[in-house]
Amino acid sequence: MSTKLSKISLPLKLTFLIFSMVLNCMGIVILQLSEAKITYEKLGFLESFKDLPIAVISLFAVNFISKFGTKKSLILALTIVGICSLILPFVEVFWFYKLWFAIIGTCFAVGKICVFGIIRNNISDEKSLAKTMNSVEASFMIGIFVVNTGFGWIISSKFSEFWKFGFLSISVLSAITIYLFSKLPISEPIKTEKENIIKDLLKLINPLLLIFLAVIFSIVFVEQSFNSWLPSFYKNHLKVNSFFALQASSFLALFSYIGRTITANIIQRFSLSKYYVLCLSLIVLVLIVIIGIQLFDTDDSKLLLFLFPIIGLFLSPLYPVINSKMIAQIDKAKANLFTSLIVIFSSLGSSVSSIIMAILFGNQMLNFYSTYILCAVIVVFTISLIYFKLAAKTFEK
Fold first, then answer.
1. What is the model's pTM?
2. Which residue has the higher pLDDT, 134 or 364?
3. Angstrom distance (rounded) from CA 124 to CA 128
4. Are 79 and 178 in contact (CB under 8 A)?
5. Average pLDDT over residues 301-308
6. Cα 273 to Cα 386: distance, rounded to the nearest angstrom
7. Interior CA angle at 251 toward 320 and 295, to 5°?
8. Residues 6+ apart with CB under 8 A from 168
9. Is 202 exposed, middle or buried (0-12, 13-18, 19+ CB in 10 A)?
C-alpha cells in the first residue's frame, strides 16, 4: 500500500459526504420551490436532470480520467461542485436548478469513478479494500442525514427564507477536501496506449461480471425503495405528520451509517461472502417480522415506524462489500472502466425502482409495500448466491 490508509480515507469520506448532500437535497429543493409557485410537473422533471448525466457520462468520463489522472479529475469535480454551491443561493431563476443538477450529476459520475479508482490503485488486499469502501460509503449515508436534518432545521426556523445559504457549507467542505487531496500522494495506474472504450469493454465483459452487475442493479433497486419512498409510506399509510415522515430518511440514513461503520471495523475478521449472506438473511428476517405484524396485528401498526429503519443496518453493507470483492480482482488499469459500469447499473437500478414504486403508490397498493420489498430482497439473495458460486470457481483458477 503506497499511501497510509488513514490519510486516503479522510478526503475520500469527505468527497462522498459532499456528493451525498448535493444529490439528496432534491426533496428540500422541491419542497421550497413548490411554495414559490413552481408547478410539480416542472419540479418532477428536475430528477431526470440529475440521474441521466450519471448514467450517460460515466463511460465517456473514463477516457477523461485516464488522460488527466484520478486525483486531478476528482479535484476538478469537487471544484465545480463547490463553485456551483457557492452560486446557487444568489440565483432565483428556475432554469439554473436544471443546469445545477445536470452539473452535479456529471461531477458525481466523475467523482465516483475517481474514488473507486483511488481505492483500487492504493489498496490491494481484499479485506482492507472492503474496510475502506464501507468506511467511505458510510459517509454517503451520513450525508443524507445531515442534509435532511440541517436544511430541515433551517426551513422550520425563523430563518427559513435563507435556506439556500445552507449550500455555502458544501462549498466550504469542497475547499477543505480539495486542499487535503492536493497534499496527498496518490498512486495512479500505469498509463497505456490510447484506450478504446468499446474494445476494452468487450474484453472486460464475462459471465461473472454480468452476474455482478445484476447484483448491483438489484441492491440499488432495493435501496431506492427505502431511501426515496419510505417517507411517503410513513405519511400516506402509517398516517404520521409531514415532519416525522420527512425525517424517516434521516433515521434510515443514520442506521445505514451505523451499519457501514460497524462493517468497516469488523469485516476483516470474516469471510466477505458469509458476512454478505448473513446481512441479507437478517433483512429477510426483519421483513418477515414486519409482514407478520401487518397480518396478525394491524396493517398500520406504529411498530413499523421503528422496524423499517433497522433494515438499514443490514442493507447498507451489501453494496460496498460486493463491490470490494469484485474490484479487488480487477486489473488496476481497468478500475475506472469497471467503476463506470457500476455507476451505470446503479443509476438504472435506482430509476427502475422509482418507476415501479410510483406505480405501487399511485394505485394505492401500500398494503403490499413490505411484501414487494421482501420479493426484491429474495431476488438479490438468489442472484448473489449464483455470483458467489461462480466467483469461487473463477478466482480459484
1. 0.79
2. 134
3. 8
4. yes
5. 82
6. 12
7. 95
8. 85, 86, 89
9. exposed
